[in-house]
Amino acid sequence: MISSQPRSTFWLIVRHEARIMFRDGTLPLVAAVLALMVGCGLFVGLAQASLRDRMLVDVVKHERETQTENRQTLNSVLAGKEALVPFSNPANPAALAGTLAGRHATLPNAALAALSVGQSDLMPNYYRITYLSKVQFMYDTEIENPWNLLSGHFDLSFVIVFVLPLLVIALAYNLLSAEREQGTLRMLCSQPISVVTILGGKVFVRLLAVLAVTIPLPLAVLLLIRPEARGAEQVMLMLSWSMLVGSYALFWFVLAVLVNAAGRSSSANALIMAAIWTVLVLILPVALNLVVNVVSPAPSRTELASRTRVVTADALLE
């Protein structure tokens, strides 16, 4: 009976908090905004994954057609019917390996690629293999808006990393401060109930609402639209992804609890949580990137091209 009392009190707080948040419209509004963001991010991810799938199909098709065309041209040249310049002659090994029929190395999309598009454009999933210089690598990749390549697409990972903490802050910045400002915290503490139980019930309602939108929706869409995501290995990856998202959301709720425990006002809590979000999500990654660039700067592609040309010219003169 003693052990069941805290549990019953906890669920009483959960039901009471859920009713309050539904009636004032906070929980439905946050859930709707989060569902809209998750839907948009997932739509972009699925569109990009489908685009890259079609790209691979087109690359393979183009390679097959090019090989057929080269074979026909080669038969015509060997039969003496056509006279071609050396760089267009498939009988010339240099021309065939350089510009006419280089094979493509391809990297198929993973089944869960739609969950995180990110900066995948910086690593094209196909590359044409030829005997040409490495300088050609600079001009042989996909071309897209440089800002998109730098910042990545608005995908589901962007929503979880950047938007989800903001919604958690909107739900949890006044977990205790609102009760204190309304004068109900002392009344609650006068009952046989601990502050930990109060906070646990409040956090449980909010965390459940956030995860109920963030995790099942994208996984259900993936399982419905992409059959390759239904394998046992992919299901395990989905479970790992779900645990990661849940841990990330729980981290921000724990931060909100710690901020509320300091006893400040709701407005002060909101400002502190916004400042923490700015530091952890925006400033810290940029600062780490700057530190890495200072400690181990990336080589200049222009310098690479210049040195390659110099080495090639020196080799030709020897």
Kindly describe this structure.
Pfam families: ABC2_membrane_2 (PF12679). The protein has 318 residues and is an all-alpha fold. The chain folds into two domains: 4-42 and 154-266, no CATH class; 43-149, no CATH class. Helices cover 70% and strands 3% of the residues. It has twelve helices and two strands, in the order αααββααααααααα. It has helices spanning 4-23, 26-78, 93-100, 146-151, 156-172, 177-182, 185-189, 195-214, 216-225, 232-261, 266-295, 301-317; strands spanning 103-106, 126-129. Strands 1-2 form a two-stranded antiparallel sheet. The N and C termini lie far apart (93 Å).
Describe this structure in a few short sentences.
The chain folds into 2 domains: 152 residues, no CATH class; 107 residues, no CATH class. Helices cover 70% and strands 3% of the residues. The chain contains 12 helices and 2 strands.
List the SSEs and their pairings.
Blueprint: H1 4-23, H2 26-78, H3 93-100, E1 103-106, E2 126-129, H4 146-151, H5 156-172, H6 177-182, H7 185-189, H8 195-214, H9 216-225, H10 232-261, H11 266-295, H12 301-317
